[in-house]
Every structure is written in C-alpha cells, then in structure tokens.
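Notes to self after the call with IL:
- keep both proteins in one doc
- input above output, always
- annotate only the second one for now

Protein 1:
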Amino acid sequence: MEWTGARYADKPTVQVETWINASPERVWGLVSDIELMPELSPELQSVEWQDGATGPALGARFIGRSEHDALGQWQTTSHIVDFDPPRSFGWAVEDPDNPTAIWRFTVLPEGDGTLLRQWMQMGPAPSGLSLAIERMPDKEQKIVFVRLREFETNMTGTLAAIKDLAEGTGKAGS
C-alpha cells in the first residue's frame, strides 16, 4: 500500500485479492460463513448472530468482538447490506446508513477457479480509530495510513487462509 495522505473523512479504502483453484460456490461457502472468520483473523475474536438469525441474509445482524494490542477490546454490530450468492457479501458496521466501516467480499469466476476480493472502507461515521485521531490530530494521516496497512496485512492473511481451505491444502487456525 502506498502513502495517499488520506484523512478519515476521505473514507479511505483498501482491497486485496487472490486467485483460488476452486469453484465460486466453494469459495462463497467460506466467505459467507462469518462464524469461521475469527479462526482466520488476528483481530476478530468471536461473532454471534442476532435476532434469531443462524446464517447470512440481507438485513441480518451479527455482533463481532475484536481485540488489538494498541486499540484494546471492542464489539460492534454489523448489518448485512450486500448479499448476492455466490457473488458478493458485505456488511456495514454499526449504522447501515452511516457506518463506521463497510466490508465486502466479491467472488468472481475466473478461468478454472475463482478471483476473490476483499474490500473495506473506513467511515464515514466515527469509530474507535477516531479517538486516536482526536488525541493526535496532527498525526491523522499517519494514523489512517498505519491502520489501512494493518487491514491490508490482515486481509491478505484472511484471503490466504480462505484459499488454503478452498483448495483443500489447509485448515482453519493453521
């Protein structure tokens, strides 16, 4: 990721992708299984469906509990705002009309396999990162850049784990 000088209000984004030697349906089954994600993420510790939901659907909600060495522990409520099996799966964090972040997986057939993309956008609503920015406003661009790089690193690891699972070469948590 290259320095952009983005500020939080710019709604900065990051995207990573990988090609997977598996069908889009196989990949979809993994990316839409939010209960698998804590095993693949260094920050996300647990998820819990809300309102009686037991799986993904447009409008379904889940609570995610996360932990980060510098940011501590927190939980958020996410709302599924994009659900188009087996193509795209996305959620808005906290308020779907004014989210603190938006996350999305896109699953595309490519050749004999699948191109998997993961994308995220910070903001526009304030998040936990906003507290750090408020404490050090002169370092906002650096704070945003460092967090985007962390997201990029973590997302790259998540996609590598999904690739291993989809291709049958790995297992969750390995």
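Protein 2 (the one to annotate):
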Amino acid sequence: MGAGVIQNQGEGTRRRRRGRGKAQPMSEINVTPFVDVMLVLLIIFMVAAPLLTVGVPVELPKTAAGALPTEQEEPLTITITAAGDLQIQTTETARGELIPKLRAIAAERTSDQVFLRADGAVPYAQVMEVMGALNAGGFANIGLVTDIGGPTLDGQDR
C-alpha cells in the first residue's frame, strides 16, 4: 500500500561523479551580463555627454590665467561670436534687448557672476560694450573665459 517502487537503472543512465561525490566548482566566468551592463552604460554616456556642454563654438584666445572657482548655481554665459552676434547661454539675443533681458535674469538669480566668452577675432571695443551692458544689467562679477596654454608676459608658453 504505501510501499515505494524501486526502478532499476541501467548502466547507460548512471552518472559518475568525480572525487568523493562533491560537485566541482565551476572555473569559468560568465561575462555576458557584465558586457550587457557596460554597453548600456556606454550608450547612456554617449547620449548624455553632448548635453553637458553649454555654449556656442567660438575660438577663445589663450592666456596663462588660472580657473575661477565654481559655484553651486549654473553660471550665466554670454557669448560673442566671430560674426559679432550675442548669445545668452545658447539663445541668440539682439544688442538692443540685452540689458532688459539681463535685468530680468539678474532678478531671478542669487549670484551676480557671469562668464563672458568672446571669439578671438572680435574687436576689443565690442567686448567692452558687452561688459558695460552686463554691468548695467546687474552683473558686477564678470569672468572672461579663455583657453589655457597661452603665452605669458615672461615669453614662455605654459
């Protein structure tokens, strides 16, 4: 009634174990999940990297000046292109609209720091006009953006 049935296993169906019946550790590593994760991360960084750069392509002059300290708030960037066009961050702005827009931006920001990027071909007078407009718009802390590695006054390149 409650007796179990014992089936006879043939010679071909027996499995042999090596050693004393212990299972051997697997010495191969499955790298497929690792490759999948790395490919996903690569795609994420490839999509996100272009979004991290702010600005318009300009040929900045090279100087030996050091970098400014960074702040918690995203810096406001004004760009003067080689053609003389003005841009606030990446939005093109007419010269007549610059001061009213700067005043509106200054009212919303806690910092009065602004970065001025100008192409190396832009005349000095135009850069000074924009700096005066920045001051009139409420930004007294103006940082001029340049590339590193330019000449120094002692005649040596860095």
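Annotation: The beta strands are 62-63, 76-80, 86-88, 91-93, 113-118, 141-145, 147-148. The radius of gyration is 33 Å.
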